[in-house]
Amino acid sequence: MAEFIAVDWGTTNRRAYHMGQGGAVLRTERDDRGLTAIAPGGFAAEARALRARFGDLPMLCAGMVGSVRGWADAGYRACPVSIDDLAGALCWVEPGRTAIVAGASHVGGGRGDVMRGEEVQFLGAVAAGFAPADSLLCQPGTHCKWARMAGGRIASFRTTMTGEIFALLRKHSLLADFLNGEVKRGAAFQEGLAASADGALLGDLFGERASVLLGLRAEEDVAAHTSGLLIGSDVREQGLHAGETVYVLADPGLGDLYCAAIEHMGAQALLIDSHAAFAAGISHIWEQHQ
Amino acid sequence: MAEFIAVDWGTTNRRAYHMGQGGAVLRTERDDRGLTAIAPGGFAAEARALRARFGDLPMLCAGMVGSVRGWADAGYRACPVSIDDLAGALCWVEPGRTAIVAGASHVGGGRGDVMRGEEVQFLGAVAAGFAPADSLLCQPGTHCKWARMAGGRIASFRTTMTGEIFALLRKHSLLADFLNGEVKRGAAFQEGLAASADGALLGDLFGERASVLLGLRAEEDVAAHTSGLLIGSDVREQGLHAGETVYVLADPGLGDLYCAAIEHMGAQALLIDSHAAFAAGISHIWEQHQ
């Protein structure tokens, strides 16, 4: 397999990988040139700038760059989705030079779900042997993705708004003044996880503020407690089986919080390097398409 | 009972009542002179302005005007709270002239809750015979209050952030562009109620957008569907018994949506005039304190 440039191109951030022979990562660069930073029609110039730094190589992009607000709509592949399905459905924005990987979609019980970029990581995690072919994977973030893998394919998935709800509460809500404290694994976070057991999130959120007013909780603990409540609610929504292993693709900080929540619910959590998973996935797609 | 001025004084709005002999409401006035519109130290001047319009009468206020951000901190009475408890705990900000009713607080399962203003409506609804002495009352709004009455007192209550979460989603979230449609009782709202049955709100919210992207739902239906999902989740959190009656204190628009949700869950809903309940409650407090 020859060298190429792989780009995980999201809404606010972007990570470019210089991929070498045999799928080796020669170099990566992360910046804030996500979709929101790029004017309409500006993507070709961005690709030129990347090639100026990484070399005049073919380029394979994944993520929101393939949405209607991105460079071009790369579409969605419906579940079950295999890595070969993605390799067979590239959207060429510069013929023979630059392509975008399709997203994945899932419909179940009348509810639709979509992802762009995470499908490469999930399939890459299995392709690289980081997770078994039949497993449950989780990628926390602004929108947390939970993917059920079966036979190495994404059988189904579900996205939760957990991170965005926390951000909305912190920036704009009645709780905003109380959510400036540090969020870390500790007693307050664990108590928040336990509080999520009642399945009554809308009421529990109001209680975060009232509990401070009534002297039941220290103000500096509210952020961690609320985070525990939200992440605990998120994990509970997935209906984990006791002892089941969840493979978590995340940076250590947020990954650690999700691992704590998963373990609190009686399951096992294993942290996976999401960049290595992306590199493995995009390499397989590049190799297969040729 | 002599004439007085009653003021339901909230964060953004205010409603003043000219109360006549025997608890009759002679006149009411609603304006936007809530707390956020009044500079620190400006409450006495506001009271003078009200007296200039309503007459030089004693004044009894309730609501957020009794918070630390209001005229004075009128404190909280812990549940169970009777109307006599409130009458015995007035906070006089102008001796013999102007008083503020205390709020109510409740602690259960390590979670605290508070209200200011709604306690007068709940106790007034029972005092006026609009609801039985043992009943469940609900006051929807930015923060929805659910009060369990026992022996005519507020035995416990719980506040949900339902209305605020909807407003945050509509103003600031990924869903914002999809939430401009009309929210009314109809097929989309009912489907949202049904969708809340899975108790997986964080995931269902993301599905609101994805379902449009995948052509499963019309964009103009998303606001009503999301409202049904949130209000349905709120009502489910209360664990209603089949056939139980919930007395809803609300304006017809929002009240109608909550009544639909309550009936969807197999309980009965009865709409009560919240202004009449406030007038009854504040009259009883005024009468009892003397």
From TrEMBL, chains A, B:
Cytoplasm recorded as keyword: no
Keyword Kinase belongs to the record: yes
GO biological process assignments: D-galactonate catabolic process
Any one GO MF annotation of this record: 2-dehydro-3-deoxygalactonokinase activity
Annotated keywords: Kinase, Transferase
Domain of life: Bacteria
Pfam families documented for this protein: DGOK
Listed name of the protein: 2-keto-3-deoxygalactonate kinase
